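Components:
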Amino acid sequence: MSEDFQKVTESAVTEPQQANPYGPNPADYLSNVKNFQLIDSTLREGEQFANAFFSTEKKIEIAKALDDFGVDYIELTSPVASEQSRSDCEAICKLGLKAKILTHIRCHMDDARVAVETGVDGVDVVIGTSKFLRQYSHGKDMNYIAKSAVEVIEFVKSKGIEIRFSSEDSFRSDLVDLLNIYKTVDQIGVNRVGIADTVGCANPRQVYELIRTLKSVVSCDIECHFHNDTGCAIANAYTALEGGARLIDTCVLGIGERNGIVPLGGLMARMIVAAPEYVKSKYKLHKLRDLENLVAEAVEVNIPFNNPITGFCAFTHKAGIHAKAILANPSTYEILDPHDFGMKRYIHFANRLTGWNAIKSRVDQLNLNLADDQIKEVTNKIKKLGDVRPLNIDDVDSIIKDFHAEVSTPRLAAIKRDHADLDNDDLNPKKTKQ
Amino acid sequence: MSEDFQKVTESAVTEPQQANPYGPNPADYLSNVKNFQLIDSTLREGEQFANAFFSTEKKIEIAKALDDFGVDYIELTSPVASEQSRSDCEAICKLGLKAKILTHIRCHMDDARVAVETGVDGVDVVIGTSKFLRQYSHGKDMNYIAKSAVEVIEFVKSKGIEIRFSSEDSFRSDLVDLLNIYKTVDQIGVNRVGIADTVGCANPRQVYELIRTLKSVVSCDIECHFHNDTGCAIANAYTALEGGARLIDTCVLGIGERNGIVPLGGLMARMIVAAPEYVKSKYKLHKLRDLENLVAEAVEVNIPFNNPITGFCAFTHKAGIHAKAILANPSTYEILDPHDFGMKRYIHFANRLTGWNAIKSRVDQLNLNLADDQIKEVTNKIKKLGDVRPLNIDDVDSIIKDFHAEVSTPRLAAIKRDHADLDNDDLNPKKTKQ
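Structure:
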């Protein structure tokens, strides 16, 4: 066996020069991973979230925050949904935001005539193409769908307004039907076609195949809308960009029908890993937490404990072996840098899984002086108490200070509590039951 | 243009016979989507969650609940982490559960000697292979790693105990290094090799390529461990199974280091769509909510509002167009059947996005009698009030009843409040701020 060991190469030197090994796949010449756009739909899809009721003032506040964050488009509820929906749409169009304003309507002239009068920059039309929706929703066949689409598209274009045509429930629609209608609407000049996983059934490789095929049929941009019922929305969005899609629909915290769609924050986590320069230059990532808090408060939900980036423990390291390496170099156990988002890293050392490297770091912070063997000894004391009950920082500090007093003469320097990169609030978040 | 319309085929008749179009890809002859196993790590990875402190009693309660749910393996914290960790491991081994019990140790004889004495069915060994971990964690080269691995594996096998060898941070490790060491350990007879996305950086197509390549190098089973920092853990797990992996590590609610790993419930949502018979026959899905509540309470977190399956709104339909179709056939807007999980569907009709089909359904539930035109009229009244403020069911019922009293003589039949498939509690979940 010992000869086999020699065959194990040590690659540190010969490693190929690839700046970002978890970035875009170089084989994807169609990839838009480094050139994507965001259509935020918090004020349309998000209004379909069970708890959502946005007043005019709240809609305007959210629209301004989204614009400030840097989303490319803001999509609003159809002006025919209700009288207030219409006047709110008009009010937001008058704000003069940098983001383009869209509204989302059924593929019907009655809706289109109202939409083009609101002042929007673009209209998103949608119609169900799966056999389920054709049978149980609008009851129309593909010929009827194509005729309506052409009529609506030509009307909206005649008003000088951007137009997107999307199927609904695309992944349960017949592929030939889909390609036929997308080819038709592309030829008459839509700005974008949309693929929608309306029920949240799609998986990444299926998404990649459909987008790549569609990309060979149309010349316009491709927009994608992914629901999250089976937990794949972010991954599907990323894979769609790899296949050549250009625009992704998001909502703040992913709110929408049922358990929602691609969350803006989660997608930022995914994209910053693949295209750090593009993402950091285009979006104000340090505003993410405020934006999420604004929407969470408006719809009366808590930020999920495990939310990407802003969840209370997203940058908390606990096991001793993790803490040791994080203290030496954060990249060992972090693919995201908390500082990119205005967040902080936290080393959780007050527990039975702690290790002596984490405790050594704490001893240093307390400005105490212990040899490594002594630190290992006090770490064992801490782990013993951690076996009996949950610990907090004060428990650990007491044990360390008592131990220090036993083994040495206290130094004369004032004890300075340096909480660099530590935040006690993060350790004991207030938790109440939903 | 009108000739083009004729070319749009109507596919309802000619559709190919594919029972489950969003199921496994028939081209994946290596796929284990219909033949996967679960290693639940709530009592190992989950113990590394910031808030986790499990007493012996709580560990036993969770282990029994996981076993009852049907997971194949239960992974426990290393017996060398602390004295109590060791005695808890021994206690759980003595429970006589159907699930096999594993413990998770560093690739070191000191740990292995303790592990094999605990009574576990298997030992999971792990060592960092990325240049980050080799430099900042253990500081060893690949030859040292291979030697330690062989020593530990042969020792554990000599005791008649299952053994898994996993790299750590596999997606930032050199491919040749990885394949070399996996080939070595496969040849000496490990039961499984493990791939770990320790920092949560992997994306689905990258996962598929690595697993498919590894599958051609080893003959043993492949286990995968995906962190969720960039929101792709569930999708990566699914894609790994497509590529030939067999076992997925999960935690209840996904709890673990940072924002955790593949959540058990979310993976069930993904897998039931792809392999419904396998999943429903193997796992007690109706116990999922109790299992999640048990763990959520133990670690003092709320179930996220948007949790797959058990989030309060996972089966809530709101927009009028959705409600209409759901009432005709739930499959139009649902890929998951709530009844498979002991959950209920809810049509949210008390809001300004409501439609007359949803209101008609409510009128029927109230055992009132209105013509379609009358229902459209009362729907407009409801939407008007919904523009002014958030509505609840009582608001809507009052409007309907007042309207009904105006337009007709009340029927003599007793008004029966039939809440079939509706649950008022779901409408107004108690929400408090975290």
